[in-house]
């Protein structure tokens, strides 16, 4: 400002500025107000270079000075200060009195920006080295020395730690042991123009002379990258601090006041407990040095555990208030570990692997029905391992069995009276009926949460239990992804390698970091950053983010971790330094460079294998092309009928999911679907007045022309009807080939994998007989009935499939958007299943309604499958025939024609390649197969069963405790060679380092998911080179979608919640075209995808051991609660062999109609009866044998009971709806015989109700089916 009347050169203190009316409403007025209220002081002098101007030096009074004299609550003055500060020049020249407008440096009133995105900062966190000198407490310092000494092995630990693991464990111990203060992360240390220091909070516009400190977090996040041994680091920390007690909180650590002088022993015990001295550690040293067990002292210390009391203030004070007793808390050197249920077994396995036996006392709480021990017993454990579901059950604390809780005020009982008395039938809530959790009575050493990012939600049950019931000195989250999508650069490098970038070198690492270096409002405003803030606020309780008693001390996360360039609004202009300092204070992580100095992981090779699709692969791909083209043309690409309309999201997503899964194999389309699509499309083309363009008409016509190729394929029709995956067999025995083939050609023979399993079992079980092929033709008729008969039902009472509408939107069959086809599961040798299988198909053969006589039945046996079955299937061997010349042999003779039969190919190119690779490597290496879709897992599992390769299925819907068991078993047991895993389960902390071969059956097309899946095997402990292959079919939509996903940026992947959200992906799907099929591919050997080496079908090496290892069903995890559930579980056990099996299971994979009785109509006959029933035995012989075992027929007609049974039994009345009824479990063979006697009608024994009820008291007669309550129950069940 112009200045004429002031002296130059000297700085003068200006106590009050003269009034200038022209500037009263501007900056000058703000300066006047601030000066008058003592917020600032002003000094003035002339500018050295420009004497026409004067310079004002402004001193701001720090906010932590003069608190009694200066009012800091005025909003007006705060706004005035903000306006003034924004105009200040803070350059050194201006402060010294030199006026240079061009060199002016404005004061930055916003938070200092931290360069980079959250991903950049997280991966640039420096590796910290623990310092022994900082730890003053004796025992913690010794523990840290043990951890950091590379020459020593930690006591109790079997495994030698890597240097970076020692440092990480040491940092955990140091952070727990050192009570330090850290600068409030909201404050920035800045230098004033005069060189002095001050502290500034931008969001609050606060200037402080002295720093403000908060107690540093005594826990944090162990965020080592996946596969670097986080579990081992935690175990090392626990072992190093074994028997170290937590500290008594300062407010409750007062010396006790005794009424009299205590004994010296009591004083010593009190001092030991008050200072939390780990006396057990000292006693172990004395015993090791002198051999003295210190029994007397040990007993006294055990009888007086360290504890403290917390006074509980009453709810309300009045004249009648009774002060409640204080709450007693006992110190426990125990670590609580909470893990996802599927990782519980893995944690137990890691403890057993890395820790010597009996060194740690571990209590596993994985059973929801198991109660916690009392606090006195609970505190004696070193580790309490909770599953998250069991941990959440402690929320019942303070509630009764009905979930009721006591209120703050007592209420008068108003329950009803007992009868006519005046005594109340009191159902009121009583204090002694409330659950009292033992957890809230102990003060634990630490709480560790594996995959703890789930605890970031403060409203979750697990977080509520942790915050309300658990008192622990230290809280740790163990996760390589501490927040959503916040991964280490190593995982992104793995993804980059999967996308065929440069190998994992420093240059490639820096290149990936630079790709995501800059702050992005799309990636950095939600998700990961909010989860990280919630974790610090609600679980780790890091100040100043966590709630406190003083409102001023609580800070909103989003207000301070971002740079906001507005006084009130949130502009999210970037991250502030506050975030970086907060992360450094809470995260324990080693940089990739430091890890690489300590270890060298085996190399990883990942490539895409592009396979030539088989004939059936092309049929499936062209069927989806037919559907997409028909829909696009007939809907004229408008309205909701069009699959890519905005309101058709659900149908489009399901169809695209089916399309991706169909690249492996698909049987969801039926002949009716194809015909309906043809009819709909041809009807549209013949319609006049449509808006169909000529290119669309040509395209649809060409697509429809291919449908004839599909309908001419008998093999495709059979596979579609039976929902089986086809296998090709060479040199099948000619006498039974026609009964096992899915089409008329038998060179090679096409059949289903389930049928081939049955054929294999049939012959293998008869290798000791003279002719193992006996009955093979009859077994083939039964096995192929579902594929040859088109009248199928999904369940009893459903209308036939042919009667259902097969079309939904224009040109879209329902089956194409109806999820995976329901597979008809037969009895499997596999122990595991991805999910409970659906009900088996019921096959109904067309029958004449009139009853047939035996003579009539015999007259047309030549044209009936049942008659052929009776003619070809012999009776089981009698006692005289049991001893054959081949008894004792376990394989077929070398000249047997069965040894020439070979599996030479499949209908799926991917399955043929996958199986060939598994056969090549499974003896030397374990194999991990990632699939997408339960049917894919079923098909692969059946193929492995056929080849006698032991495997497990880790499915998304599998019970959590079984998931954990399967991972541990696969990792440790040598006989488990292949693990099939749903790719959606690949990111949950699993350790499968025993596998060195990884196959993705379908491209994942998501780099993060694929990289995390690979990290299951490529991790610490892996000793082999890891080979990874992704299978893709050439010249298909799948291949083009994969190529597009490789080109998508991370932001594009994040924006596309599903792949088809990407415009280019949608365009690829919409532009699908017919894959040409050569003439030679439609028949013979051209149809199949060949195996690299043909595989022996019957009497494979080791078949007996494999069959024996698969006889025991998987344990049942839940109690059945209803008859419906019981039936489903029986169906499950009968069809897949993986459900509970307490009694005998009768598998009804297929039922037949028995018309051999002239007096009764056709009734259901069990396809697989008792153990003594042979599949080869003719139906008539079987029923005659059963009838003869029941004794002579009754002399007179049926009594009243029998008549009532006859009137209700559908077997006797010929009800065809029960053909192929669901499986039933019976307790013994007598129930089967009893049911047989009912079904036989003419051989029904005369039993009165009294005989039925009293029969159980008498032993059964020889050769007579036992009767009694069990029989009555079975009769009632059948009714």
From TrEMBL:
Organism: Vermiconidia calcicola
Record's protein name: Uncharacterized protein
Domain of life: Eukaryota
